[in-house]
Fold this sequence. Notes:
- The structure is a single chain.
- By secondary structure, the protein is mostly helical.
- The chain has 3 domains: about 20-100, Dna Ligase, domain 1, CATH 3.30.1490; about 105-185, no CATH class; about 195-320, no CATH class.
- It contains 13 helices and 6 strands.
- It has a two-stranded antiparallel sheet. The protein has a two-stranded antiparallel sheet with strand order 3-4. A two-stranded antiparallel ribbon has the order 5-6.
- A hairpin with a 5-residue loop joins strand 5 and strand 6 (about 305).
- The protein starts with a helix and ends with a helix.
Amino acid sequence: MKKIIIIILICVSLYFSARILLVWNSRNSESETRVSFEIPPGSSLNKISQILLEKELIRDSFVFRIFAIWNGFAKEFQAGSYVIQKNLTFSEISEFLQKGKSKEIKITIPEGSTIAQIDQILYKKNLIDKEEFIDCANFCDFTLDIDNFEGFLWPSTYFVNTNNFSVKSFISRLYKNFEVQLAPFDKNIKNSKRSKSEIIIVASMIEKEAFTKEEMPKIADVIWKRLDEKIPLGIDATTRYAKKDWKAPLYKKDFETNSPYNTRKKLGLPPTAISNPGIHAIKAAIFPEKTEFYYYLHDKNGQIHFSKTLEEHNRKKIKYL
Length: 321
């Protein structure tokens, strides 16, 4: 009986020794993917290890707890927001957790954001002074073949280092990402007989006008058709862009201005994009769905209604609005 117990103890000891040796000083993975997570205030060591395991930042939560206790870190870990890479060791992760923050933070730029809205996102993250992003987009000296960045900054999630954040570098990064994302469609844009600038301006309007990605190709067809047939676009979003107000109601006087963004009075496209569109809006602008429609509106529930004629459109205005 004693021999059996000894054998069991040896097996258990070897098992846990193997687990510890496997991950104690090893990197979690080869991946450099960044992961964002939160450690809530008052989190226990067990809770912290479970969060790390769920985020795939460690492979063994039990061994991580042993590591933390062995090295005296168990009560040193702090609550906070973290962005760390998947390829760290227990020691490197523990170093971050003792500081209560990481060098990098996550910045999410939603599709359809304007330069002014990106400025607000960065300002709220305490990365810039107010309007610093706007000023740099307009006046910084870039060695890039572009006159206006609106529409050409790729909306996505980015990880930035808070210690050496540079507005100019971040703008270059967003623009270069835009170029990479658009490159697969260069041939399609050339075949469309539209310029890249025209495609992006139309995509920026689609992004602000559409409520769902499914309706984008039809809206694109309406816009291109009205442009080609020299019918005013009548897109309210362009007026909102000029006003720099996306929420307040629009009044008759707003559509009587001589602004180049007043597409109810001015024929053709606005002078610049009115947002930084995502891939669905861009694809819709490149590949519009052929329809017979010239008008559309959204009802109070967000449902879109297309019309072939102005008379039909006006009837739907009365019915749905």
